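Researcher: Watch the backbone:
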Amino acid sequence: MAVISRIVIAFCIFGVQFSFAQALTQQPTFEGSEHILLGDQIKLFFSRQDPGQLGYLLHLPNGLRISYGDIVSFGDLYGPLNISIAHGSTDAERKALFLAAFNAFASNLKAKDEAEKLLAVLHHEKKLLEDGIERGEDPEKIFQKIGSETSRQLNCITGGGCNPKTWFLHPGRYLLLANIDFDHFGDDAWLAYQTGHEIALAEAFSAHATGDLQKLEIAYAMNAFASHFLSDRFSAGHIRTPRDELYDMVTPSFVGSLLAGFMHREENSAAIHVHNKRDDHWLAFGDRKYLCAVNSDNRHFLNEALQSSARQIFDIFVDGFIREDVVPDILPYADETLNQNQKDLSPMFYFDPQTKKLLRRVDLENIYDRHFTDHWWGLSTLALLTKARGLPLEAQDQFKNSEWREWALQHKLIPDSFE
């Protein structure tokens, strides 16, 4: 607790005073170190008299001993590679996908060494973040200085490229998961969370009759993994970005994914006004701004949701039922949707459910432009955004191995040769 309380007052540049070209890699979610920090703020209870424990090391079947926050961070590192959890066609399929992802690091004996290496990278990033904030630095600028090094190491450990110059051309599991990050956005994030949370509740209930504390630990671990997707649902760039529609309606589909990344980064930095079903209203920032003072309200409501979720695991363990699920009432929704913009930036893209059209902001570089069009093309839009803001490194690999390679070369989206 002491570490968090001293770093949440970090100064950050407010509003639209940010550089669009700052992110050379496409981060699908809060940074790994941010997920560790937010997860380790959650108290875990093991008896009715327990005041709640922070940073407790959970015991997993394969011998891993890691914290709630560590497991929250694993949502970017473990998952199905062919279909996202939320895209499972039935509840049973979604639960099977979630369990397979969870067991990949929790039960697989061979995964223990890899998981420890991944956490070493993320905890090093966390230390750089904390040390920089101690010196009075802006967290977002600290992440800029770290650059793509964390992503390179995570890609390397998960079976991908390691070369500092070309790592992004050889995607490991880390980058492959980032390319299908539907579970981290909007309704898909909520569904992925619900799927895992229900599994965790069932595990806690199975331990209720015997008071099996080891099973309670597994239930907490399952819930921590599910809470990754819940936490993403509070990140500004994940709330109204039409992630599914951009992938489904733009040709080629991977360009739609890249366009989603541009909108995601824009709204993370600029922030949007949100509300919940309890009629709370606040300003939500996103990835790389979790610890900023201007994000304090969003951080408060996120912590409330995560703590309420974890408390349900304990309640069903000791009582056999949960008193009330308040998490849906805390979930943020954008104040301004579609083209109904007054105070927030205009969405770069939005899907109109009535006309079934995917619209784009006319002036991509004026985030307050209120004009939209449905006459636009994915590739030309990507070229415009790339010229103004730069292209994520991993996108170069996607173009390299696609039929659009020559087009990308012609428009200087990728270099003439690869090492």
